[in-house]
Amino acid sequence: MELVRVTEAAALSSAAWTGKGLKNEADDAATEAMRRLFDTIPMTGTVVIGEGEIDEAPMLYIGEKLGMGSGPELDIAVDPLEGTTTVAEGTAGAMTVLAAADKGNLLHAPDMYMAKIAAGPDCRGVIDIDKSVEDNIRAVAKAKNKNISDVTVTIIKRERSSEIIEQVRALGARIVMFENGDVGAAINTCFDWTGIDILMGIGGAPEGVIAAAGIKALEGDFQGRLLPRNDKEHARCLEMGVDPEKKLELSDLVSGDDAIFAATAVTDGELMKGVQYKSWFAETSSVVMRAKSGTVRFINSRHSLKKKPNMVMDK
């Protein structure tokens, strides 16, 4: 429950920039608040996948130490603001997210692209990133006892998704596209009320690791493969002990029997309502999941703006 305070702080700080067209400012606000709150938690944490390398990010970079320096040793994966453009434009689906697990249990990899496929509990062991789009959709349809035309695939709206989109349409399945934020899109496959059956496409590796932690708690399935764009990224994978050609199973991304996923909505999404400002307080909606127990908690919180002046600033 301590970790949700971190995502709440980041959401409260970044939500002040909603719709103002300033994505960098929104991201900076979330990152600074998240970094500040981490140091109030009794843990010895290390960012294993996050905002980039030490020379690319001022904070929450790969290898950075977090926490009070006491308590459990944890791996941390962070995305202080999933959907910077979403917040800047004031559209739906932005959230602040993180994952934590015992030291050595989260994938330690560079910040780069990752091919991904995800599905809910009834499709566990059914999807395979090495198989074709058609094979995976047919497998999901069979597992869910659906017609192919009733299977809904969620795909990020990018030029790089065009081939997948064409194949899904040719097969006759349904598509729900999203503009930004594939952590939320992947998690949606595990909640029936979202109507999403499977996620396919290419997104960020940090988001992949974080989503995998949540999906592990929800007993769904997730696979990925790192996609280095040049020799430098390829070499960095090998330097960090990751084979970029390897199919990453859920157990490769999040090993061990436990992991914690925490997220707080910044703008409204499928699972949670975004930050709402009232006269003297703000309301947040969060979700916390733990793999070991399988517990999923949706948390609605009220925050006094007078007592938390550093989290919410009048911009």
From TrEMBL:
Pathway in which the depicted protein is active: Carbohydrate biosynthesis
Superkingdom of the source species: Bacteria
Keywords linked to the UniProt accession: Carbohydrate metabolism, Hydrolase, Manganese, Metal-binding
Database matches in Pfam families: FBPase_glpX (PF03320)
CDD domains with a match to the protein in the record: FBPase_glpX
Matches recorded under Gene3D superfamilies: 3.40.190.90, Fructose-1,6-Bisphosphatase, subunit A, domain 1
InterPro entries linked to this entry: FBPase_class-2/SBPase
Enzymatic reactions: beta-D-fructose 1,6-bisphosphate + H2O = beta-D-fructose 6-phosphate + phosphate
GO terms assigned for molecular function: fructose 1,6-bisphosphate 1-phosphatase activity
Family, as annotated: Belongs to the FBPase class 2 family.
Protein name per the record: Fructose-1,6-bisphosphatase
Organism expressing this protein natively: Jeotgalicoccus aerolatus
